[in-house]
Design a protein that fits this description.
The protein is about 60% helix and about 5% strand. About 20% of the residues are buried. The chain has two domains: about 1-95, Rossmann fold, CATH 3.40.50.1010; about 95-140, no CATH class. The radius of gyration is 16 Å and the shape is globular. It has helices spanning about 1-5, 15-20, 25-35, 40-55, 60-70, 80-90, 95-105, 110-125, 130-140; strands spanning about 15, 35-40, 75, 95. The two termini are about 20 Å apart.
Length: about 140
C-alpha cells in the first residue's frame, strides 16, 4: 500500500534527520518510491531548537518534520497527538492516516474494495485511529 501513496498528486518531503533513522521501510526504499529528502538550513535548525524549548512533548525529529512543513507551506502528516497540537498552534495544516486513505480513494489510486481491508487490517493490528471515523469510511467504502 505504501508505494501507492507516492502516486498521489503531492510532493512528499521529509527532513534528512528523520530518514537516516528509518529501518522498515528504510529511507532508501522510501526515496525509491519518490520521497524527497531535504536538509534544513541553519535558520530552520534554530527554529527547531526554539520549538523544542516551547514544545517539549514532540520528539526532536517530529519538530524537524514540522519546521520543514512550515517552511515549505506544506501540510504535515502525523498520527502523533502532541505533534498535531503543536502544528496547529504554529499554523501548519495537519492530516493523518485516514486523510491519506481518503486521498488514495478520491484520486482513484486505490479502489474502495482495497481501502476497506487495508483499514480493517490497521484496526486489527491495534491502530489508534478514531473508531467512529473508521466505521464511517468502512460503511461508505463497503457499498457494492
Amino acid at each position: 500500500m505504501l508505494p501507492k501513496v507516492f502516486y498521489l498528486p503531492y510532493r512528499i518531503l521529509a527532513p534528512d534527520v528523520v530518514i537516516v533513522e528509518l529501518n522498515e521501510p528504510s529511507g532508501v526504499t522510501l526515496q525509491g518510491y519518490g520521497l524527497q529528502v531535504l536538509e534544513l538550513p541553519g535558520e530552520q535548525v534554530r527554529e527547531v531548537e526554539r520549538m523544542r524549548v516551547h514544545y517539549p512533548k514532540p520528539g526532536i525529529n517530529d519538530l524537524f518534520a514540522l519546521v520543514l512543513a512550515k517552511a515549505t507551506t506544506g501540510l504535515l502528516l502525523t498520527g502523533d497527538r502532541h505533534l498535531r497540537e503543536v502544528a496547529e498552534n504554529e499554523g501548519v495544516k495537519v492530516h493523518g492516516t485516514l486523510w491519506v486513505l481518503d486521498q488514495l480513494v478520491e484520486h482513484q489510486t486505490i479502489s474502495p474494495s482495497v481501502a476497506v481491508p487495508a483499514l480493517q487490517a490497521m484496526l486489527d493490528h491495534g491502530s489508534r485511529l478514531p473508531r467512529d471515523e473508521c466505521q464511517k469510511r468502512l460503511a461508505s467504502w463497503n457499498v457494492d
